[in-house]
């Protein structure tokens, strides 16, 4: 994974010198998780999220949140996130706000 930005941290997954996935972290919030459609169901998104979660843990963050579409909700639930709110926006449509506690009980 490579780091591209200094404000919001953007992480990329690379295969054969091509970017196949991206995700970003801004403090305690994950944004813009995108995986090349040809790379779906290969674990790239899971690896990218786990990588970001480890960075968050190393930074002292104990709870991560993210906005999800309805199509991405199941993916995040499978990674341990759960919905806590729904936000409507004229610009972005409906976002499902999801959180995950990074501290193991």
UniProtKB/TrEMBL annotation:
Keywords: Transferase. InterPro entries: Acyl_CoA_acyltransferase, GNAT_dom. Gene3D superfamilies: 3.40.630.30. Pfam families: Acetyltransf_10. SUPFAM superfamilies: Acyl-CoA N-acyltransferases (Nat). Residues 1-103 form the N-acetyltransferase domain. GO terms for molecular function: acyltransferase activity, transferring groups other than amino-acyl groups. This is GNAT family N-acetyltransferase. It comes from the Bacteria.
């Amino acid at each position: 994974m490579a780091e591209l930005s200094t404000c919001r941290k953007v992480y990329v997954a690379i295969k054969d010198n091509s970017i196949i996935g991206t995700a970003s972290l801004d403090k305690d919030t994950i944004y813009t998780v995108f995986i090349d459609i040809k790379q779906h169901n290969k674990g790239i998104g899971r690896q990218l999220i786990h990588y970001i979660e480890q960075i968050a843990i190393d930074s002292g963050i104990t709870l991560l949140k993210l906005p999800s579409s309805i199509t991405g909700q199941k993916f995040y639930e499978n990674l341990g996130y759960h919905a806590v709110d729904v936000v409507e926006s004229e610009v972005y449509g409906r976002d499902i706000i999801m959180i995950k506690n990074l501290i193991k009980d």
